[in-house]
Amino acid sequence: MIVVKVGGSAGIDYDAVCADIAVRWKTGERLILVHGGSGETNRVAEALGHPPKFVTSPSGYTSRFTDRQTLEIFEMVYCGKMNKGIVERLQRLGVNAVGLSGLDGRIFEGRHKDSVRAVENGKVKVLRGDHTGTVERVNTHLIDLLLAGGYLPVLTPPASSYDGVAINVDGDRAAAALAVALKADALLLLSNVPGLLRAYPDESSLIREIPAADVETYLEFAQDRMKKKVLGAAEAVQGGVKRVIFGDARNGQPVSAALGGQGTVVS
Questions:
Q1: pTM to 2 decimals?
Q2: What are the residues whose beta carbons fall under 8 Å from the beta carbon of 28, sequence distance 6 or more?
Q3: Binding site: what residues are annotated?
Q4: Is the peptide bond before 157 cis (omega within 30 degrees of 0)?
Q5: Contact predicate 70/39, CB 8 Å
Q6: Which residues are listed under the site Transition state stabilizer (predicted)?
Q7: Nearest of 80, 79, 89, 101 to residue 22 by alpha carbon
């Protein structure tokens, strides 16, 4: 079992990702695809007159502040345009893919945080009206049914709170939780960089290997959203996933390349 998470930033080649997955799926490999959509969500939010707001926590993690209107835009893009665009690509390649959000069947569940602590102008403020959370539980029954029926699941945030409220969750950490729950052999975190870079954005500074026991010590090299990927990798290996690979989704055969060791391998 391989869980593939592909990000939503500029430059990602979804055609290449889907083509590579289709080839591997047809050989009998079991895969699940989780995707993001941050870049397109930002564009649509701007066009709709409700531009995105990003906040940085006191511990240095950046996330999207998700009020109710932002959540609706988020769902429109992630569950609609991005998810169905990927499903269509796979269907055209002969893969019977099914697109679902973590809200469907409560695949991803967690606690709803309606307030968030954020650093603004050097001061810590509490912002209320947030619709975010962290995946604390993965309900695999629906996933197992799809896989047993020969369908390739294509998953995306949001998740469900324990009260059934849609919550924005980090896709990389959701994919890590999924990989742990399914006892996956590998988790691939594909984005628009070749892996974790020691001196971002210098791509020649790629860190090729990270010992599983030392993942969190490499957080100092992670910039912006890469911090969540490193955190997700740490959670995955702590949960028993054998390998986590940060790979490049911009061209070629991204899944096969990452499984072949191209990128940053955590093991």
A1: 0.96
A2: none
A3: 64, 168
A4: no
A5: no
A6: 5, 229
A7: 89
Q: Taken in order 253, 236, 265, 249, is the CA torsion positive or negative?
A: positive
pLDDT digits (tens, 9 = 90+) for 39-50: 999 999 999 999
Amino acid 225: pLDDT: 83
Considering its fold, how many domains does the chain have in total?
A: 1
Q: What is the pLDDT of residues 225-253, one digit of tens each?
A: 899 999 999 999 999 999 999 999 998 99
Residue list for the binding site for substrate: 64, 168
Rounded distance between C-alpha atoms, residue 198 and residue 227, angstroms: 13
Locate tokens 């870049």: which residue?
39
Query: What are the E-state strand segments in the chain?
Result: 2-6, 31-35, 54-56, 62-64, 97-101, 108-110, 112-120, 123-133, 137-138, 152-156, 159-161, 166-167, 186-191, 209-210, 243-248, 264-266
Per residue in 139-198, pLDDT tens?
999 999 999 999 999 999 999 999 999 999 999 999 999 999 999 999 999 999 999 999
Strands 159-161 and 108-110, sheet pairing: parallel
CA–centroid distance for 17 within its chain: 14
Q: Which domain holds residue 212?
A: 2-266
